[in-house]
């Protein structure tokens, strides 16, 4: 009986822990606002970024391309942050596939480092290689994951665990993943769990009516001739996403102003590979690059696949941003990031620079500051009553080129909620280019209670803002004249308390119903001896 009681106590503890985990897991990513003094001044103009996670990060690099430094050295340099090196440090490198002998992937990675000794820029970029085995602790130690694959097949799936990859997203980290093709059900299932569906089995897309091959008469960076086979099935596409911060950068000048350099230098991308689709609502992903209107999907036998999407419905490069603001770039081509394609089309390199900046949160980030809420007439009054006229303001900044500049958009709105939306309106903004303040004067509802003021902002290319503030609205009348609970609602509250009482009564009966019988019972072995 003692063991039985112990089992029940353990069961009760497990039940409580389970309920706690469920509550923590299912909770939405929300930020509770804190008010500041009404006389605190806003910081105008440009502010230098001092937040480390938005300036540099440490990444895990995984690949099955044996000579990655020779084929994608320029892309690795982009990861590093260019010539100044102020970007992302590759803290762990994992070479998977084609293992030989006892050296395994560790030997492959080291040989790659020695082969690249002639390229000082790339060797410095990869000087911090550490381990070659992937561990769950990487999700806490590193800031992002970069996976560059030629073919995603069963050999790769033996090395990469889906829980390892999804762990980065769950911990608000960022992922970059590119593949040329997918072979096998395990690889398809792996991508489906990341909300990506790839047209695999060596399929490829091509614009049959505009198949203008790039100039292959010149030599590549290593001095060899570029062959037709290297650019076969490649084509140019100009279907690139617009009106996002990803492809529009700014230069800071005079520490208080910012001027646009280019709306978008990227006019077309040289692409070679397959296509994909995203298994999420449209508000959670960006169609960064799509096929042209004449694009078709072919299988490995060069036969047209009729049952699948066509034209601009075929996605080539996509960006996913989840509710917790983790970012995930997926490209159904690794070739477009190679040194060869950078040489044939310089816009591929500019495109790579832009999406890496967005992927690892160097652009498209909005921050808030100085949330103020006070009465218009008596600013020092802390209590709010029904029908009061109040003033609400908040400062919003956008990250650009390692500076925080005032965020200037006219579509930021707020809600006043009590069970349902009581008021919804857009925030006003000052005309000055260096003023980051959004504001609104409005009247409180006519009914007392606790209201939630919510600012939920979702704009393509930016992080999701979900800001909340709970405001208690009082009534100036006597308490007896404003009962908290109306009489018709009493049965509802009665059922709630009865349910709680019944639950605890059930737990007590479950734990203590056999205690009386425990004293009368004797051990069967003892009775047998007597």
Element layout with pairings:
Layout: H1 2-26, E1 31-32, E2 47-48, E3 57-63, H2 68-71, H3 73-80, E4 88-95, H4 104-115, H5 120-125, H6 138-141, E5 144-148, E6 151-152, H7 154-157, H8 162-170, E7 174-178, E8 181-182, H9 185-192, E9 196-198, E10 204-207, H10 228-231, E11 235-237, E12 249-253, E13 257-262, E14 269-271, E15 276-278, E16 285-290, E17 295-298, E18 315-321, E19 327-331, H11 339-344, H12 346-359, E20 366-375, E21 384-385, E22 389-400, E23 403-406, E24 413-418, E25 420-426, E26 428-429, E27 437-443, E28 449-457, E29 465-474, H13 490-512, H14 515-520, H15 524-529
Parallel strand pairs: 1-29, 3-4, 3-5, 5-7, 6-8, 7-19, 21-29
Antiparallel strand pairs: 2-23, 9-15, 10-17, 11-14, 12-13, 16-18, 18-19, 20-22, 22-23, 22-27, 24-25, 24-28, 26-27, 28-29
Helix pairs in contact: 1-13, 3-12
* Largest sheet: number of strands, sense, barrel closure: 7 strands, mixed
Shape-level CATH architecture of the largest domain: 3-Layer(aba) Sandwich
Number of domains: 3
Number of strand elements: 29
Mean pLDDT: 80
Radius of gyration: 30 Å
Helix content: 25-40%
Overall form: globular
Largest beta sheet: strand ordering: 4-3-5-7-19-18-16
Low-confidence stretches: 21-28, 98-131, 250-263
Q: What fraction of the residues are assigned to beta strands by DSSP?
A: 25-35%
Briefly note the structural class of the backbone: alpha/beta
Q: How many helical elements?
A: 15
**CATH C-level of the largest domain:** Alpha Beta
First-to-last CA distance: 21 Å
The name CATH uses for the topology of the largest domain is: Rossmann fold
Protein name: Dolichyl-diphosphooligosaccharide--protein glycosyltransferase 48 kDa subunit
Membrane topology: Single-pass type I membrane protein
Subcellular location: Endoplasmic reticulum membrane; Membrane
Domain OST48 N-terminal: 130-358
């Amino acid at each position: 009986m003692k063991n039985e009681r112990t089992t029940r106590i353990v069961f009760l503890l497990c039940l409580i822990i389970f309920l706690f985990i469920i509550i923590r897991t299912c909770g939405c990513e929300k930020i509770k606002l804190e008010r500041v003094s009404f006389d605190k001044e806003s910081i105008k103009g440009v502010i230098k970024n001092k937040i480390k996670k938005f300036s540099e990060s440490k990444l895990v690099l995984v690949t099955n391309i044996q000579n990655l430094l020779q084929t994608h050295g320029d892309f690795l340099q982009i990861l590093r942050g260019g010539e100044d090196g102020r970007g992302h440090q590759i803290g762990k490198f994992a070479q998977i596939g084609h293992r030989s002998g006892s050296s395994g992937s560790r030997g492959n990675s080291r040989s790659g480092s020695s082969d690249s000794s002639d390229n000082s820029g790339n060797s410095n970029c990869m000087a911090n290689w550490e381990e070659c085995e992937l561990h769950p602790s990487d999700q806490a130690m590193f800031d992002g994951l970069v996976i560059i694959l030629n073919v995603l097949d069963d050999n790769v799936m033996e090395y990469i665990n889906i829980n390892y990859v999804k762990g980065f997203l769950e911990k608000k980290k960022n992922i970059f993943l590119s593949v040329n093709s997918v072979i096998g059900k395990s690889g398809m299932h792996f991508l489906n769990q990341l909300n990506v569906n790839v047209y695999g089995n060596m399929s490829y897309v091509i614009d049959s009516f505009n198949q203008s091959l790039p100039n292959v008469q010149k030599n590549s960076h290593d001095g060899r001739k570029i062959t037709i086979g290297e650019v076969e099935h490649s084509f140019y596409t100009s279907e690139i996403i617009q009106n996002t911060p990803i492809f529009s950068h700014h230069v800071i000048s005079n520490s208080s102003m910012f001027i646009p350099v280019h709306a978008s230098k990227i006019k077309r991308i040289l692409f070679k590979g397959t296509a994909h689709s995203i298994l999420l609502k449209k508000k959670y992903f960006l169609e960064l690059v799509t096929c042209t209107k004449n694009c078709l999907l072919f299988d490995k036998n060069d036969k047209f696949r009729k049952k699948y999407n066509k034209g601009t419905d075929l996605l080539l490069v996509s960006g996913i941003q989840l509710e917790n603001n983790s970012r995930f770039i997926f490209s159904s081509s690794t070739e477009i990031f190679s040194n060869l394609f950078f040489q044939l089309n310089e816009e591929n390199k500019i495109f790579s620079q832009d999406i890496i900046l967005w992927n690892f949160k160097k652009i498209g980030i909005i921050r808030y500051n100085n949330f103020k809420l006070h009465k218009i007439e008596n600013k020092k009054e802390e209590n709010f009553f029904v029908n009061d006229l109040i003033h609400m303001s908040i400062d919003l900044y956008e990250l650009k080129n390692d500076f925080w500049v005032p965020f200037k958009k006219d579509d930021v709105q707020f809600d006043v909620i009590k069970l349902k939306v009581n008021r919804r309106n857009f925030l006003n903004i000052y005309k000055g280019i260096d003023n980051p303040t959004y504001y609104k004067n409005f009247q409180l509802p006519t009914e007392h209670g606790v209201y939630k003021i919510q600012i939920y902002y979702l704009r393509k290319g930016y992080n999701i803002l979900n800001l909340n503030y709970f405001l208690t609205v009082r009534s100036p009348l006597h308490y007896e004249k404003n009962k908290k609970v109306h009489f018709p609602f009493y049965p509802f509250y009665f059922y709630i308390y009865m349910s709680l009482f019944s639950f605890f009564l059930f737990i007590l009966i479950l734990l203590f119903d056999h205690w009386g019988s425990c004293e009368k019972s004797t051990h069967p072995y003892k009775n047998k001896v007597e």
